[in-house]
Recover the amino acids of this structure.
């Protein structure tokens, strides 16, 4: 399909007249219906008598997973950012646009462009890293790719949405300079340069106001300052009032009109609290979007594009190849030399089945998968035997949720459940029942008839009767609830006011034939989907699998340990821990002790505590969440068919306290506020300022070849107000293999009236070179590369003086320097 008109400015009088005529034919009730989502369809509402269809939406960003059972699953967006390849990211967008068209989808709910502040954020994998410039360039490419296919993007979550804990209630508090320099640039670029047709507000508050009703963010910056004429929609169930969001500029409440409906807004229009012109503007925006993309009068579904599309599958594989980051390669252990291998052991929970993506609304059901194990077996063919054992299987807890036996009374199987319409388990229970297992996915619905879905608490009591004496493992998986668990009166798991991650584990000693009393308390405080699962099993049940893996390791010529997080431990709705679970860490350490030829392939959406195991392994490949084709790409990198070229879009710290957000990330004092006291010094800016050496710096990534940086020149020693400064330098492949290098240009303001970062990324390019080949890279720095937001003048400012240009292979590996003056 040809590229479509992405200009949402009111520059076409004929189009605006057509829109105005349609608006004039609509009743007030029809208008209000159209600014609230369809309760069943995940779409806008149709006005059939006027020929206005519903406009279908589908979640992203790694695949289209509404209106279909399966679709191509691409690598997580953070892996796309790790490619440092704008052309590739645009191709990902094109692929997603094709996938939307094959299913008749009009609006893709992506990309996410929130800034990575801490590795703990459960949704880091959905975003584009810690740097506003890199995020901006990738967002523009993604938007242009999707929208070239006649599908609108939805840049999200606007704004300052950096964590998942209590996301409906905690306010992100910050000064305007920090907002402008760090947290808004990617949104601005996606709107003004990419032309995104839609924007989605976030769940959190900013400086005490929910973003869905934030006049400064929506009407002030987005619409008036940036000139956005598209549609500003809410995130799902993130509207908390009727009048305030309408007046603040929100155009569409999703997924349904819980607040923005005729019952609330017709009276508000009649008594003057809401102007009908405000409602009309929202309808105009929805219709403008539809006409610009050509959605009215034709079918959106393109039958010529297959749902299992070879073209998009190929893009997914290319993206996985480009985003893999080689972080450690001692003694050139990688690539493994196939001619030296007779037996390869592939172990770890991420080896098989495929670990393709993080969890929550971003998870996509793939058209098929290639696991790391399958990729290695295909890559090696018959040249070597490949043996597999998981060693550690975190998903084993799911079996315990479904099979754990509890007792209430003498013979009744189950726990006595008491359900309360309050948060403190007080008074008489509204519902009492026997629950066979504690294995619930309640979603948005109440846990029982007669219980309010907004806020409730539950108490379960009873016994468990162990069959054998010894330690028992306790497992919990949860979403959007506080909980605590007692065994025989001892508090063994406490996540009351501490709901910082989805999973929890505990251990208790039990005696065969002796019933142990169980008490579980739970409360739902937030308006979001809920799940809660609890189970137990004898501790050590995993020892057999663990031992089986180590047996394979001892006799292998090479070992690949595929470890990390997965969609159950890292995803939407809760923040994760910093370290891998203890058994995975132990598996890596024991494997490296038994076999020196050990390489780890890590799946994660961000930084991980590696202190216990990284020094003991020779090699480390970061696979992020590589999508459905990831196993092929990983195998190619391990055995040399692919030369890794990915680089980190976020700093990986040694210790969590090294990061600027360490003491200003979660709402630790329970005042429902987090003040971002790191300000503009987030990510590598903080490490530079404090002179802290990271584990792996921003922009870092190894290769199987080497690159030289030479001949830096500037177009002038004084900044040209009209043409800027052109930075030119040579990159040469000084190694023996072809490869790609992502070269980075940073700018330093030598002297400033306000504190500024030591350096900031302002340009980059990815070049592909054969051995001995040389190319000249040219990057133009405009005035915006020199500017900061002045807190007194409330304007972008570039102060006269000296600026340094720093060219390097990473944030800490600066190869060339030059200066100019403004």
């Amino acid at each position: 399909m040809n590229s479509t008109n992405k200009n949402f400015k009111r520059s076409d009088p004929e189009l605006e007249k057509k829109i105005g005529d349609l608006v004039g034919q609509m009743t007030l009730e029809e208008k209000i219906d159209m600014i609230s989502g369809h309760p069943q369809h995940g779409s806008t509402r149709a006005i059939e008598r006027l020929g206005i269809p519903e406009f279908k939406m589908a979640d992203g960003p790694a695949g289209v997973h509404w209106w279909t059972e399966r679709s191509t699953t691409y690598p997580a967006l953070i892996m796309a950012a790790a490619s440092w390849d704008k052309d590739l990211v645009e191709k990902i967008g094109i692929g997603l646009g094709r996938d939307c068209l094959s299913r008749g989808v009009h609006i893709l709910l992506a990309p996410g462009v929130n800034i990575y502040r801490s590795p703990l954020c459960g949704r880091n994998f959905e975003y584009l890293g810690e740097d506003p410039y890199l995020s901006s360039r990738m967002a523009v490419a993604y938007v242009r790719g999707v929208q070239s296919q006649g599908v609108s993007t939805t840049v999200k979550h606007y704004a300052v949405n950096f964590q998942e804990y209590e996301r409906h209630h905690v306010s992100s508090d910050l000064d305007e300079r920090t907002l402008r320099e760090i947290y808004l640039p990617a949104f601005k670029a996606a709107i003004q340069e990419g032309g995104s047709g839609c924007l989605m507000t976030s769940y959190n508050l900013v400086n005490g106001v929910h973003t869905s009703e934030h006049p400064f963010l929506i009407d002030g910056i987005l619409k008036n300052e940036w000139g956005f004429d598209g549609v500003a929609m809410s995130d799902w169930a993130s509207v908390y009032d009727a009048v305030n969001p309408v007046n603040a500029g929100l155009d569409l409440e999703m997924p349904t009109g819980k607040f923005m409906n005729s019952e609330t807004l017709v009276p508000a229009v009649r008594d003057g609290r809401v102007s009908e012109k405000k409602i009309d503007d929202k309808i105009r925006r929805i219709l403008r979007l539809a006409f610009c993309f050509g959605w009215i009068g034709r079918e959106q579904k393109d039958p010529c594009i297959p749902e299992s599309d070879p073209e998009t599958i190929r893009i997914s594989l290319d993206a996985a190849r480009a985003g893999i980051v080689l972080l450690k390669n001692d003694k050139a252990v990688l690539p493994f030399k196939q001619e030296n291998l007779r037996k390869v052991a592939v172990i770890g929970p991420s080896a098989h089945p495929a670990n393709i993506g993080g969890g929550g609304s971003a998870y996509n059901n793939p058209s098929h998968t290639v696991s790391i194990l399958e990729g290695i077996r295909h890559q090696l063919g018959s040249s070597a035997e490949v043996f597999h054992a998981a060693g550690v299987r975190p998903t084993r807890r799911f079996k315990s949720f479904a099979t754990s036996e509890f007792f209430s009374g003498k013979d009744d199987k189950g726990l006595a459940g008491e359900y309360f319409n309050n948060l403190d388990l007080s008074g008489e229970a509204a519902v009492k029942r026997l629950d066979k297992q504690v294995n619930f996915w309640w979603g948005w619905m109440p846990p029982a008839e007669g219980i309010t879905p907004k806020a409730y608490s539950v108490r379960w009591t009873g016994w468990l009767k162990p069959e054998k004496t010894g330690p028992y493992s306790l497992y919990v998986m949860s979403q959007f609830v506080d909980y605590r668990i007692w065994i025989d009166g001892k508090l063994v798991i406490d996540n009351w006011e501490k709901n910082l991650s989805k999973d929890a584990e505990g251990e208790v000693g039990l005696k065969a034939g002796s019933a142990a009393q169980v008490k579980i308390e739970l409360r739902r405080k937030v308006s979001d989907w809920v799940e809660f699962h609890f189970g137990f099993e004898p501790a050590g049940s995993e020892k057999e699998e663990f031992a089986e893996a180590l047996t394979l390791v001892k006799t292998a010529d090479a070992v690949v340990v595929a470890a990390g997080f997965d969609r159950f431990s890292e995803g939407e709705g809760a923040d994760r821990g910093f370290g891998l679970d203890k058994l995975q860490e132990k598996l890596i350490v024991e494997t490296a002790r038994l076999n020196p030829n050990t390489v780890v392939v890590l799946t994660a959406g961000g930084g991980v505590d590696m202190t216990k195991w990284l020094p003991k392994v020779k090699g480390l490949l970061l696979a992020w969440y590589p999508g459905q084709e990831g196993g092929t790409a990983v195998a190619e990198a391990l055995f040399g068919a692919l030369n890794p070229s990915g680089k980190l879009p976020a700093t990986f710290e040694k210790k969590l306290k090294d990061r600027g957000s360490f003491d200003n990330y979660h709402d630790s004092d329970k005042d429902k506020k987090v003040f971002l006291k790191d300000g503009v010094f987030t990510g590598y800016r903080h490490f530079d300022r404090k002179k802290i050496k990271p584990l792996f710096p921003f922009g870092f990534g190894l290769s199987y070849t080497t690159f030289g940086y030479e001949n830096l020149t500037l177009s002038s020693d004084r900044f040209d107000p009209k043409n800027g400064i052109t930075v030119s330098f040579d990159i040469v492949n000084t190694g023996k293999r072809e490869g790609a290098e992502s070269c980075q240009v940073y700018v330093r303001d030598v002297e400033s009236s306000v504190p500024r970062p030591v350096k900031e990324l302002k340009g980059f390019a990815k070049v592909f070179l054969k051995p001995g080949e040389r190319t000249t890279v040219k990057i133009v720095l405009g005035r915006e590369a020199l500017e900061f937001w002045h807190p007194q003048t409330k304007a972008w400012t570039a102060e006269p003086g000296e600026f340094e240009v720093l060219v390097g292979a990473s944030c800490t590996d600066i190869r060339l320097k030059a200066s100019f003056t403004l």
